[in-house]
Amino acid sequence: MIRAMQDRVPQLVTTIAGLREAVAAARRAGQRIGLVPTMGALHEGHLSLVRAAKRECPCAVVSIYVNPSQFGPKEDLAAYPRTLDADLAALSACRPDWVFAPSNQEMYGRDHATWVEVGSVAQPLEGVFRPGHFRGVTTVVLKLLNLVQPDAAYFGQKDFQQACVVGRMVADLNVPVTIRVGPTVREPDGLAMSSRNRYLSPAARQRAVVLWKSLQLARRLVEQGERRAETILAGMRELVATAEDVQIDYVALADPQTLQPVEAVSRPTLAALAVRIEGTRLIDNCLLEP
User: Fold this and answer.
1) Cross-strand pairs, 236
2) What is the pTM of this model?
3) For the purposes of burial, counting CB atoms within 10 Å of the CB of 92, is it exposed (0-12), middle (13-18) or buried (19 or more)?
4) What does the buried/exposed string (b/e) look like for 129-149 if buried means 16 or more CB atoms within 10 Å of the residue's CB?
5) Radius of gyration of the chain (CA)
6) CATH 3.40.50.620 residue ranges in the chain?
7) In degrees rounded to 5, what are phi and psi of residue 82?
8) In what order do the strands lie in the sheet with 269-277?
9) What is the Cα 107 distance to its own chain's centre?
10) Where are the alpha helices (DSSP H) in the chain?
11) Closest Cα partner for 56 from 37, 38, 31?
12) Which CATH architecture has domain 2-182?
């Protein structure tokens, strides 16, 4: 089904047949197509990716789908915000051509039994604390890439490991698409924009800035000449621990290509962390330049 929005742009598509029909017409006209995969509850970070897609591609597709296969059994699938009407209103200013918002039945059908698993780059960091997460991500992303067949797909740096995993999948499976990674968009106080920020109480929201502060600390230490990963990580952990009701999943310095831990910041290095504040799990990262 395709339903036109109030201004006729973009169009809401809820079926695979409708999506294929829409993008086929654009492809016959020789137009480049960009894809922005999302789970909805859109914020400025998502919208910046949509605008990037529209700058580079005459046609842009935004998917809004809360993918159940990337949630663990004790994660927030049921509670994850579903705000389709608000998302469509927010997207109207960015003017993507289509918004694809399928049902679970449309995406997975009956007796779905095929999964995509990426190797080493999916195993550390999020792979340790969210087993099976990237299997769900890569499976749904590959399905979307097959459905849309875009020239480029757009992801955010906040989900740095996800972009690495998708890039590895695309390279290994020879998927003819360019992966674009847009910069993390932050609130004025530095907190990375995230759909899960809305879970935070006002007090927890204030404490959540500690993630960004710890990344800033890592940058300052490197700028001051510190190269030992152990020292930088200790400082980051100590700063995060000053916030009340905080649980650290990981604080890491890693090679940005392999995501394997480093002992020294001798070249560009990923600083990444995952922290739970009042039970809400937040992630953030930045690149350190020695």
Assistant:
1) none
2) 0.95
3) middle
4) ebeebbbbbbbbbbbbbebbb
5) 19
6) 2-182
7) -120, 105
8) 246-254, 269-277, 280-288
9) 19
10) 16-28, 44-56, 84-91, 104-108, 126-129, 133-148, 160-172, 202-207, 210-223, 229-240
11) 31
12) 3-Layer(aba) Sandwich (3.40)
Catalytic annotation, residues: 46
Place domain 195-283 in its CATH homologous superfamily.
Answer: Pantoate-beta-alanine ligase, C-terminal domain (3.30.1300.10)
Residues of the chain with CATH 3.30.1300.10: 195-283
Look up residue 26 and give its amino acid.
A
The two beta strands, 280-288 and 59-64, are: unpaired
- In a structure prediction context, what are the per-residue pLDDT tens digits for the chain, which is 290 residues long? 444 444 445 799 999 999 999 999 999 999 999 999 999 999 999 999 999 999 999 999 999 999 999 999 999 999 999 999 999 999 999 999 999 999 999 999 999 999 999 999 999 999 999 999 999 999 999 999 999 999 999 999 999 999 999 999 999 999 999 999 999 999 999 999 999 999 999 999 999 999 999 999 999 999 999 999 999 999 999 999 999 999 999 999 999 999 999 999 999 999 999 999 999 999 999 999 98
